[in-house]
Design the sequence.
């Protein structure tokens, strides 16, 4: 199985190299479809053999140290946190390939090789268990994304892609400094002075970072991840990148690339810096709620369908972050399933918008209207994706949002039910902007006569939407089929994080800390406690 | 027989020096440029093989301590010889296509390389000076190689005047150091107890001389003009081989003559590192000419390397050596591609907007350029990333976090000007009037090997970093 995991990760890269030698566009399309489908099929045994009760990573490959004297290893494996996202990535890839079948006509081989490299990078991100490997795989996804938006994108593509690339890179380069610092700190503390980025060691209870260090490192890592997620106020690259990217690019961005940020929060940000994560949980909660409402409000006034979906992404990702910082199983489980949901429903919406654009070469809401009668099958698909995105009970969106809201409502660490209440407002707003958009695009009289000649979607287009629809309904009806994969691991991880936080704060005394840290972490000085008791006794 | 055995320690330099003389004679009597090219390539290849072998051999001092061999010195020789070999191979096609293929180029390159090889093994201020001067004089000539090109002449003159000026500083610094310590051996200077004014002034002037050679801000003024004016393959030679040689010599001076460098000079290097990174990157942002942009980028890279020198530990020096290796690979590659595009429209075809849409016309060249540029940005999985990572890590370990933060922010800014080239290559429509011819097998094979090495050492740097790590304590 270890070998199979590596095959799954590198098969797309191999396909990309193969594409370099293909001259004909049609061959390039078929090759990438075969490669991505094979990747998906090969990844199925990983899911079926997965031991859901284990709290350690499975199918581990651990190499010799790569960087000479440093303990930086090639280390991949899957655990409860990554399993579903890994599967989502392999599942979406053939769909993405199909969605670009006819819409991409120039430099086809180049386009598909970029998609395939991106897939290897994303699979690596989810499977990496060494912080350094995670960084490398992450950057590997940036290069193809840069070209996907920049070469095959819309009119403003160059500005969009440069902004996307530089914005992300600034955060991640700063994170690199923090990563090096963590590596040396962990090395000095628990690895005989040898630099290490092994995830198992970084989350070991013997590795105790000081509170001041944790704060800075948490903020640096958090900054990088906030940009990638993106969390308000670092979101401005996202609508631009989404709008300018070609359909397949938007789908990859929504379904896979954005998950890397939220996944990184759950995998690294929270467990690595437990005290800081708990102390800053309300801050992140507030930012998440702002993102939920802000994204929804801005989505409401969009004239462009694709931009509307892009802003709705910001809103949905706000939910994910809120769920993670609720620090309980329900919230985190909701966050994971919401990541999958967002990948499915937003991915589907981008595909659907792309289908409209291919037919009419416009995405403006005002240019449509009344096309429900012309395209009945399309309407059904669009309706399901829209309702899933809103969070209608019985479809997948509801499960994630409900778990997150319940989780944050009961969260001791967030400490207030206002987060859940305001988050719920976001759900209502989602219904408003999505349904309003749907009504204006699909119903009413036909106002533009070009819309009279619209053809309904063809077999390929139906075929690529059907699998997504199946999962949208399946997750909605039987969510436990999916949440069971992450439950044990998430519960363990959150408990362990809080235990380690408690252990660390026991070992610090207020005298050694600067005043802001004492305030932030609510460290009571043993001396102060003593004087308090003395006063009482007196 | 002592001295004969010692000759073996500088065998690469002897081979290159002999090849230089031979090539000159061949040109005078046979006048066959192709033959000269082949001879040069073969001798350089031989010298490179020996230098690579020397890296794994033992190290020590020879010629009464005037030179040092093995370890870092051997690695420096490898860097210089890689730079030379690639330059020679790329120069043939480039100079033929631009109509200035003359045999003197090769003898000048060989003599310059001879100087560099002496420079990377200098253990004494006199050897150091001989190396630097031999190298520089050949570079002055090479910069002005294309005689009818106005910019080339300007570049050569500028380089010569400023170079002579900086040599003055260097020599004056050496003289003062000799006055203070009574010796020109690097290690003797380190043992000096009574560090008076003369010593400090001497070291300061010596550093100025080095800062000029590695084009650190504010001694960088010559770099963009010279890099732009010189024939592109010669620019590649200057940017890689001569810079690596200067840096290796700088490491020897810092670690042998000024071992307390971290305490005494750390702050000075710290300051120059920040200046170099920030100003180099900012000025690169506004360049419209790719060669000038690469010149400023090489200034910025000197800044990143100075981070390692500011840290001044064994780990930092080995990181710097790795960085120089990555830097050599990717710069040779990038200049090679610039030179290739220049074939088609003459020497001024280096504006960034000239490149519009060329990426898809010769896909292999476009992909190679992307690899070299992304490696310069410092993105994994390319060697440039590992270089940067190791230098930054060594500095973080020494507590120079603010310096590293400036470094990463500077390299984030640098993304823009590297991407600009790629944006033009891939994301703008091409001028229909341009058809690119396929480069020769040797030319493209050289570039592909460079790219393959860039990826290989980005994915699997372990063996090299182990080797470089093993140099410590012996050679520094």
Sequence:
């Amino acid at each position: 199985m270890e070998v199979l995991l590596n095959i799954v990760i590198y098969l797309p890269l191999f396909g990309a190299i193969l594409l370099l030698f293909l001259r004909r566009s049609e061959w390039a399309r078929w090759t990438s479809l075969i490669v991505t489908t094979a990747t998906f099929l090969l990844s199925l045994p990983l899911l079926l053999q997965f031991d859901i009760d284990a709290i350690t990573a499975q199918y581990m490959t651990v190499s010799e140290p790569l960087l000479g004297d440093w303990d930086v290893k090639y280390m991949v494996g899957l655990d409860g946190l990554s399993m579903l996202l890994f599967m989502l990535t392999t599942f979406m890839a053939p769909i993405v390939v199909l969605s670009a079948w006819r819409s991409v006509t120039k430099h086809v081989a180049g386009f598909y090789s970029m998609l395939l490299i991106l897939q290897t990078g994303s699979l690596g991100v989810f499977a990496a268990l060494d912080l350094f490997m995670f960084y490398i795989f992450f950057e590997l996804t940036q290069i193809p994304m840069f070209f996907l938006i920049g070469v095959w994108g819309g009119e403003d593509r160059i500005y969009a892609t440069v902004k996307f690339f530089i914005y992300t890179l600034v955060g991640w380069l700063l994170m690199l400094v923090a990563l090096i610092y963590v590596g040396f700190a962990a090395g000095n503390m628990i690895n005989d002075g040898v630099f290490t980025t092994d995830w198992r060691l970084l989350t070991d209870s013997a590795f105790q970072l000081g509170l001041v260090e944790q704060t800075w490192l948490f903020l640096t890592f958090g900054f990088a991840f906030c940009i990638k997620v993106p969390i308000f106020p670092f979101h401005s690259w996202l609508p631009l990148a989404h709008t300018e990217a070609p359909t397949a690019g938007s789908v990859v961005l929504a379904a896979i690339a954005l998950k890397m940020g939220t996944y990184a929060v759950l995998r690294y940000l929270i467990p690595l810096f437990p005290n800081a994560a708990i102390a800053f949980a309300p801050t992140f909660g507030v930012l998440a709620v702002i993102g939920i409402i802000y994204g929804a409000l801005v989505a409401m006034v969009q004239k462009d369908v694709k931009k509307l979906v892009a802003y709705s992404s910001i809103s949905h990702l706000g939910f994910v972050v809120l769920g993670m910082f609720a620090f309980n199983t329900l919230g985190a489980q909701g966050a994971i399933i919401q990541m999958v949901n967002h990948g499915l429903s937003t991915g589907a919406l981008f595909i659907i918008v792309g289908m409209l654009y291919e037919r009419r070469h416009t995405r403006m809401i005002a240019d449509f209207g009344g096309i429900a009668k012309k395209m009945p099958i399309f309407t059904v698909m669009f309706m399901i994706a829209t309702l899933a995105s809103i969070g209608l009970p019985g479809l997948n969106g509801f499960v994630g949002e409900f778990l997150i809201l319940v989780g944050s409502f009961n969260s001791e660490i967030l400490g207030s039910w206002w987060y859940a209440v305001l988050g719920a407002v976001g759900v209502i707003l989602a219904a408003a902007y999505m349904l309003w958009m749907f009504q204006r695009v699909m119903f009413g009289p036909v106002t533009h006569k070009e819309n009279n000649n619209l053809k309904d979607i063809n077999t390929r287009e139906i075929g690529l939407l059907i699998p997504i629809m199946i999962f949208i309904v399946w997750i909605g009806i039987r969510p436990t089929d999916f949440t069971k994969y992450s439950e044990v691991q998430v519960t363990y991880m959150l408990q362990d994080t809080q235990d380690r936080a408690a252990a660390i704060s026991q070992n610090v005394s207020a005298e050694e800390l600067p005043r802001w840290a004492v305030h932030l972490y609510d460290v009571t000085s043993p001396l102060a406690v003593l004087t308090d008791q003395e006063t009482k006794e007196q | 027989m002592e001295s004969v055995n010692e000759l073996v320690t500088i065998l690469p330099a002897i081979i290159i020096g002999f090849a230089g003389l031979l090539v000159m004679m061949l040109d005078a009597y046979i006048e066959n440029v192709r033959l000269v090219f082949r001879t040069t390539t073969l001798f350089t290849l031989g010298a490179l093989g020996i230098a690579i072998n020397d890296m794994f051999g033992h190290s020590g001092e020879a010629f009464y301590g005037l030179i040092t061999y093995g370890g870092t010195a051997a690695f420096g020789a490898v860097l210089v010889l890689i730079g030379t070999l690639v330059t020679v191979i790329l120069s043939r096609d480039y100079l033929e296509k631009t109509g200035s293929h003359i045999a003197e180029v090769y003898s000048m390159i060989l003599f310059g390389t001879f100087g560099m090889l002496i420079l990377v093994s200098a253990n004494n201020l006199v050897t150091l000076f001989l190396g630097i001067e031999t190298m520089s004089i050949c570079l002055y000539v090479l910069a002005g190689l294309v005689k009818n090109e106005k910019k080339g002449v300007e570049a050569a003159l500028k380089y010569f005047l400023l170079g002579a000026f900086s040599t003055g500083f260097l020599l004056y610094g050496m003289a003062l150091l000799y006055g203070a310590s009574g010796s020109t051996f690097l290690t003797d200077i380190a043992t000096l107890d009574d560090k008076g004014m003369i010593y400090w002034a001497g070291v300061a002037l010596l550093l100025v001389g080095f800062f000029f050679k590695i084009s650190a801000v504010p001694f960088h003024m010559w770099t963009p003009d010279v890099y732009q004016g010189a024939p592109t393959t010669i620019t590649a030679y200057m940017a890689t081989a001569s810079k690596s040689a200067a840096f290796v010599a700088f490491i020897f001076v810092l670690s042998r003559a000024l071992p307390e460098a971290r305490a005494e000079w750390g702050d000075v290097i710290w300051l120059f590192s920040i200046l170099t990174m920030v100003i180099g990157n900012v000025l690169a942002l506004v360049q419209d000419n790719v060669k000038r942009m690469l010149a400023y980028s090489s200034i910025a890279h000197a800044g990143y390397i100075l981070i390692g020198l500011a840290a001044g530990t064994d780990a930092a020096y080995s990181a710097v050596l790795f960085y120089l290796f990555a830097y050599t690979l990717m710069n040779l590659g990038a200049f090679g591609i610039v030179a290739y595009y220049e074939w088609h429209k003459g020497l001024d075809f280096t504006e960034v907007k000239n490149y519009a849409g060329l990426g898809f016309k010769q896909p292999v060249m476009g992909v190679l350029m992307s690899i070299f540029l992304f490696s310069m940005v410092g993105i994994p999985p390319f060697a440039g990333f590992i270089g940067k990572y190791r230098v930054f890590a060594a500095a973080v370990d020494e507590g120079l976090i603010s310096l590293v933060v400036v470094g990463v922010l500077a390299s984030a800014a640098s993304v823009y000007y590297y991407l600009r080239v790629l944006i033009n290559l891939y994301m703008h429509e091409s001028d229909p009037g341009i058809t690119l011819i396929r480069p020769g097998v040797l030319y493209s094979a050289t570039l592909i090997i460079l790219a393959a090495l860039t990826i290989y050492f980005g994915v699997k740097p372990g063996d090299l970093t182990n080797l470089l790590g093993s140099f410590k304590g012996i050679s520094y």
Chain A touches chain B at residues 20, 64-69, 107, 110, 135-136, 139-140, 142-143, 146-147, 150-151, 157-158, 161-162, 165-166, 169-170, 173-174, 176-177, 180-181, 183-184, 195 (CB under 8 Å). The first strand of chain A starts at residue 58 and ends at 65. Strands of chain A lie at 58-65, 73-78.
